Amino acid sequence: MGDSVEWILAKILLYGTCPYPSRKSQKAQLRIHASQETWMRIHQHELSGKKAFLTQQLQFRGSMLTLLKYMDPFNATFRRMGDIPATF
Fold it and tell me: Measured by CB atoms within 10 angstroms of the end CB, which terminus of the chain is less buried, N or C?
């Protein structure tokens, strides 16, 4: 497939469809949730994703092993969130 994440997200945002509709849905291995205030602080670079997890401001459901395996990509994603214009 080789498409960039940006292209896939852009297509979903622009057209409201997944570019790979024939793929079977899979249950998420990990779900992350937090308060609006926590997301806002992460977005404004006042709080890192790692610190939010360690202080339990970000909660997760799923495998701790999966969380630890993908901690670096999560942090990179959270850092990039601040580059996206948002209103809270």
Answer: N
Q: Provide CB contacts within 8 A for 48, sequence distance 6+.
A: 42, 75, 78, 79
Residue 78 burial (CB count, 10 A)? 21
Alpha helices in the chain (DSSP H): 5-15, 36-43, 49-54, 64-69, 71-81
The pair phi, psi for residue 60, each rounded to 5°, is: -140, 155
What global pTM score does this model have? 0.59
C-alpha span between 32 and 58 (Å, rounded): 7
For the chain, helix, strand, coil in percent to 5 are 50, 10, 40
Nearest CA to 39 out of 30, 48, 29, 27 is that of 48
Measured at the CA of 54, the angle between CA 77 and CA 29, to 5 degrees, comes to 55
